[in-house]
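Changelog excerpt

This revision adds worked examples to the README so contributors can see how folded entries look when concatenated. The first example is reproduced verbatim below.
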Amino acid sequence: MVKKTTSSQPEETTEVMGAEAAVESAVETTALSASPADESTPVEEFHAVAIRVSVRDIYPQESYGRAGYRFSKGNPTEIAMAELPADKLTLLYDDPWLFVEFITDK
C-alpha cells in the first residue's frame, strides 16, 4: 500500500495492485464475461504426431541450429513427437528465430 500525502489535502491512501493481483483480476473478469460452453456440442480432440520447424524470414542466415537439429528457411524439418523430449520441444517452440507448426493425427 502506498500513501500519497499533499500539504493542502488530508491523507489519501491509494492501493497499488501487484502483477499477480492484476493477472488474477483479468482472469476473473474474463471468466465472468465469457459465455459458458454448450455441453451438447461435442469437442473433437487432436493429438500432435509431429512438428514442422522452419527458420523465420527475419533471421539473417539461411540456416539455424538448435537443440541438436539444423533448420533452414526454404525447407521445413519434420520431427516426430515420439523422437522429441519435452524439454527440446519447449526449447524449439520458445525460440524467436524458429516457426513451429504442430502436425496432428487428423
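The second example, added in the same revision:
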Amino acid sequence: MIYTVKACTLPWRFYERSRFAPQAIEWEERYILHGIQQGWPLLNIETTLETLVARTKASQLDFLHCSFEDLAQEKFVHKKGIMAFIRQYYRPTGTQE
C-alpha cells in the first residue's frame, strides 16, 4: 500500500520569529505542536507519542503565539532544557541584549 502525504512548507514568518539560528529549535517544536493541534498529517516523531498528541489537542494554548513560560508551565518544554538554555545564555555575536 502506498501512502501519499502532502508536504507542509514552513511559512517565512516561522523563520522570521527565529532571531538567530539556535532559536529555530524552539520554533520548529512550536510549529509541530501547532500542526498536531490542527490535525495535520505530520510524520514527525512527536505524532507517535499518544500522550503528547492527546495533551496537545486538548491544550488551549496558541503554540505559535504563547510565551515560552506558558509552554513550560504546561510541560510542553522543559524549564532546564536546551530551548531554555538558548534563551538564557546564547547571544549572537554583535548584539547588546
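Reviewer comment on example two: The radius of gyration is 15 Å. Helices lie at 12-17, 24-38, 50-58, 68-73, 82-89.
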